[in-house]
Amino acid sequence: MRRVLLIDLARTSASVAADSARLAKIGHIAELLSRVRPEEAEIAIAYLSGELPQRQIGVGWRTLQDLPEPRQIASASLTRIDDLLSRIKAQSGPGSQAARKELVGELFRSVTRQEQSFLLRLLAGELRQGALNGVMVEAVAKASGTPAAEVRRALTLRGWLPAVGAAALTGGVEALRAFHLEVGRPVSPMLAQSAPNIPAALEKLGGLAALEWKLDGIRVQAHRSGSDVKVFTRTLDEITAQVPELMEAVLALPVDDIVLDGEVIALRPDGRPEPFQVTASRVTSKIDTARLRETTPLSVFFFDALRVGGVDLLDLPDSERHAALARSVPAELITPRLVTSDPDEGMAFFAEVVRRGHEGVVAKSPNTPYAAGRRGAGWVKVKPRHTLDLVVLAAEWGHGRRQGKLSNLHLGARDPQSGDFVMLGKTFKGLTDELLAWQTERFLALADGPSDEWVVRVRPEMVVEVAFDGVQRSPRYPGGMALRFARVLRYRPDKRPEDADTVDSVRELLF
DNA sequence: TTCCGACAGTGGGGTCGCAAT
DNA sequence: ATTGCGACCCCACTATCGGAA
């Protein structure tokens, strides 16, 4: 059988994009995977799910501009492309950006137009074929003749689908079952769905739930084997060196073979949380950590135990994992928690958490095992929600399925002194297709002032009700503040711009 | 037949490190 | 010294498909 080349992936990707049915997408990918050589399976799975074996190679939209003309004959092998991407990633030091650009040029010169299109979307991180990890799990299962649940389980434990998929294709279900939690290698973290309030969250979980403080910090997964500690983020990147406080806390535990899940956060001396920006800055700074921990110390709160004393706990229910956590970690390092089925008790807990300045509450089903991905809504987060009536100052043309529609709105609050509007951020969220069509027409009619290729400025007449999580300090916007996670609730045709909320009322929410 | 869980897509603000200017 | 880019922290919401009910 002919060797699978890059052009075959590009064609498969085009077929996947052309069919909207998920089963058809899975069929196209599985067909290709069944033909790929074992030594190139990992590359094929990575590319077709929008990832690179190198993860990141330091190439973004800017480096991908002004690409050379394609060649006519497709011949590029997956191994050759993979080698080139590794060389691109390896560039560093002075001259590296020019060298990367040169190698990217070499890469694109060596492939056809269809391959260029595929590589461009792949490297830009926008495959837009309607298939990523979720579809690829099913495709791997189909091509390897293994149950999707086994693929999913191995993915949770290994955290990297191309490796799991390659193992399934060569070794079948036995190879999948050989994946275990490995201390020092991060597992895919369990994520939460959301609910508007505590009663809704309790109902989603079937009545009884463990409620925990939701801290606005950085998710951490801590692994300890003997005196060796490693700490990983939600995307499985290692940050051990940036969080010495966490390392020391884990080393002080009485158990030396342990994997914990939790959150690091910078707290003020009075125990209230610093703004998220402070925690994020502290955790990402790699220079002078010793001095930073004096000025901005980190606290850690664990909420789950994946392994204690050499025993894996992932498949146990939450209540048992938490009991194991409580036995091996001192109480002051455990996220405060209340088990209840009483909505009133739950709402009082929520109110108290918010009063203390924290982000909200995560409700957890006591029966749920630790699982990333599709195994139901075991965790549900609840956060308070603010709303404002703001004025649309401009709108940006959308991309992809929003092409040709005005999508992203510039939002302004009224300045009572000047009578002008002060921009507080943008949002594209909460808009239905119907609303997108309507606002495109409406804003083109309101167009006014200097518009460019992307931004259409409009007369400040439309009032829109916006929900958001909070107000943060901004170095970018003129008022010095910006909305966090803004989304549209509805337009307010009954309101005039003079009725919109003022910058002063927004400033009151900034602390 | 209808309902609902899971996915993919569409982008948001902020900060860092690094290389180029 | 400043600016631009890439990467990665945090993330909400809608449309769609297809299995569950």
Q: How would the blueprint of this fold be written?
A:
Elements: H1 6-18, H2 22-33, H3 38-48, H4 78-90, H5 96-109, H6 113-124, H7 133-144, H8 148-158, H9 161-177, E1 193-194, H10 198-204, E2 209-214, E3 218-225, E4 228-232, H11 244-251, E5 257-266, H12 276-284, H13 289-295, E6 298-308, E7 311-312, H14 318-328, E8 337-340, H15 343-355, E9 360-364, E10 379-382, E11 386-397, E12 406-414, E13 421-427, H16 433-446, E14 455-457, E15 463-468, E16 470-473, E17 481-484, E18 487-491, H17 503-507
Parallel strand pairs: 1-10
Antiparallel strand pairs: 2-8, 2-9, 3-4, 3-5, 5-6, 6-7, 9-10, 11-12, 11-14, 11-15, 12-13, 15-18, 16-17
Helix pairs in contact: 1-2, 1-6, 2-7, 3-9, 4-5, 7-8, 7-9, 8-9
The protein binds a DNA duplex (21 and 21 nucleotides) through helix 5, helix 7, helix 12, strand 13 and strand 17.
How would you concisely characterize the structure shown here?
By secondary structure, the chain is an alpha+beta fold. The chain has helices at 6-18, 22-33, 38-48, 78-90, 96-109, 113-124, 133-144, 148-158, 161-177, 198-204, 244-251, 276-284, 289-295, 318-328, 343-355, 433-446, 503-507; strands at 193-194, 209-214, 218-225, 228-232, 257-266, 298-308, 311-312, 337-340, 360-364, 379-382, 386-397, 406-414, 421-427, 455-457, 463-468, 470-473, 481-484, 487-491.
